[in-house]
Amino acid sequence: MIAARAGRAAAPTPLVPRRAKMAGYPSAATGAGDSGGFHDHRRRLVPGPDVPSPARGALAGGRRRDDMRSAVTLRRGRAIPAARCALGMALACASGALFAAPDPPPGVPVLGTVTVTATRTPVPLADALAPTFVINRREIEDSGATTVAGVLRRYAGLTVAQLGGPGQPASVFMRGANSNYTVVLIDGVRINDATSGLAPLADIGTQMIERIEVVEGPRAVIYGADAIGGVINIITRRPGPRQLEAAVGGGSYDTVSGAAALRDEGNFSGGRWGAALSVQQEHSGGFPVFAGSNESAAYRNRTLAGRFTGAFGPVELEARVWDTHGSTQYANLDFNGPGFSFNGFLPASDDFHDQVLAVEARMHPLPRWSSSFTLARSADVTDQNQPDAPGLPPGFVRTVRPELDWHNVVDAGAHHRVSFGARAQNERVSSLSFGDRIHESTPQAYGYLQDELDYGRNHATAAINYLHDGAFGGRFDWSAEYGYDLFAHTRLIANAGSAFHTPTANDRFGFGGNPRLEPEKALDYELALRQQLTDAQDVELRLFRTDVRDLIELRFDQSVNAFSAFNVDRARMEGVQLRWSYGAQPWRAQASMIYQDPRDLTTGQRLLRRPRWGGSAHLDRRLGRFDLGGDIYAAGNRADVDGITGATGVVDGGYVLFGLHGGVRLDARTRLQLRLGNLLDHRYQTVNGYNQPGRTVYVTLRYTLPG
């Protein structure tokens, strides 16, 4: 069933789509601070990794209301799929190096990356005022991950919680913010679902990715609702010189994968064309979802991604497609024992289909004015393969979001740039859970104006946005960022801005739903000091604080003698980050640390599933035909709720993970890669009661045929 998949409560609780359960916000009934205890991996109805804080505990055993169902359903609570994790990891190995760019000569700095996500204008990464980092193609390959969830979990400040192994629901907490406070984009098109606010991170394969841009902090001015914690923009492969690559791989948990990629470009009469196409398939036998379960959860995923361009005189057209579908096995909690007691696990499965289609036209109305129009459609569908309960049909969750975007950049001089635009969308959601249906359509439109100045030692960006939502009315948001060069290589940065999160369809119409809910509002303040140590090395220290009010929680409503959602709570996420990077061939290295205090201000409790501290480090070296590297990721303990009973006051222990990777070029066209994960075979959990991979080994063989 789509709902009770991650069960945590000892008594009946609301069911939720798998992904919904990972959203990560507070729940009056279960404790505040996270999302609501359930996570709908793909907007399904299942308890998720983002659970509320332990303070209030009780109704849903620590889940929040955005779950449409509850973990404790009648033998149907759905648990998250475990098989996908292992499978994703192997595939990432297999798809790692397609279209990889050649390395610079030894000693040449590997800096100069340009990012476009923070402002929707090209900005050198070293000059970005917003906290931004880029995960490039080589880093994706070295991670050995086959899904975006596997890539992101290697970076401190991004806490990834997953309900088991390959393909199981995964969510990310950016700097302690709820996981549905993060907007996830594929080439600028939003893919968060409407029922839980989460994205299918465990289903996005790495084969098609050129790079991932991560911007932390509020971006509501540019991207609209929900961008309180930040934005993750997944940028797909672009056309280039003709190249064909094939890869096969396999490893732990009976994982096998295959991938192929083709790109090309050329000229035609009066114009230019380009194409990039990639396909990826993976299958994993997986491992048991729950600790204490003995039945492995298999996962299967097929992905197609393409980008096609054509320049016709003054107009450039681009068509993009991303399509992934497959199936995931998981386990439901069975509470049909005496007195509704826990009676074991029940096997279950669902089918998923996620898609993005987009057509974009770019032009220059005037020499200093560039303009683009994008028509896009995203879809997220999950269908359960078993009924929610005897006599009821199987549940489903579906989100379809067509949108139209107009974006403009005006070069106003050597030190000045203005951008403006508008976006309109109509978010349509339908779901069925335990016989309860949701069918809702919400239009939303906003316009924005942004001004960027870069003069001498002063660097500033200011923006304002007005958004109108068909359900919640209109509001303004703003951001202001200022950087001052104290010395030639030293910059002091101060940022502030507002953002908001609209209640999900589950918040409004699911279990305990309240159509009168208001958006959750946030204010963010940051100070940073950035130092370039050498041409190839820099370091940044950043302080941040985000205050959120009108948090949505489940509270008992005596007027109706039932639990209902209300805007009642406040939360604060504050901390300090330190990042260092070095890049000059043949070495590459980076390290990051975070100390944060995500807390429910109403109860004083820590928000669930977010560690107080975390750290990560990566080191890589090229040695002729060989490349070697290692990484480490560490996280402190986290407050949680019991994965079976829903009892509060549970603490998940901290953990340290080591990984090694290496490769050898067998000849000019063939490369063999090896990845060892969790080298010390450490047992840990990112969500209480859910297994995570032990020591893993993946091998990939790639063959490249240049044009």
Written overview of the protein:
With 707 residues, the chain is mainly beta. The chain is built from five helices and 33 strands. It has a 22-stranded antiparallel β-barrel. It has a five-stranded mixed beta sheet with strand order 3-8-9-6-7. It has a two-stranded antiparallel sheet with strand order 1-2. A hairpin with a 2-residue loop joins strand 18 and strand 19. It is globular and about 75 Å long.
Indicate the low-confidence ranges by residue numbers: 1-111
**Which radius of gyration do the C-alpha atoms yield?**
24 Å
Q: What is the mean pLDDT?
A: 84
Global morphology: globular
How many helices in DSSP terms?
Answer: 5
**Structural class of the helix and strand makeup?**
mainly beta
Determine the strand fraction and express it as a percent band.
Answer: over 45%
Total count of strands: 33
Assembly of the depicted chains: single chain
The rounded distance between the terminal residues' Cα atoms is: 49 Å
What is the share of helical residues? under 10%
Major beta-sheet overview: 22 strands, antiparallel, barrel
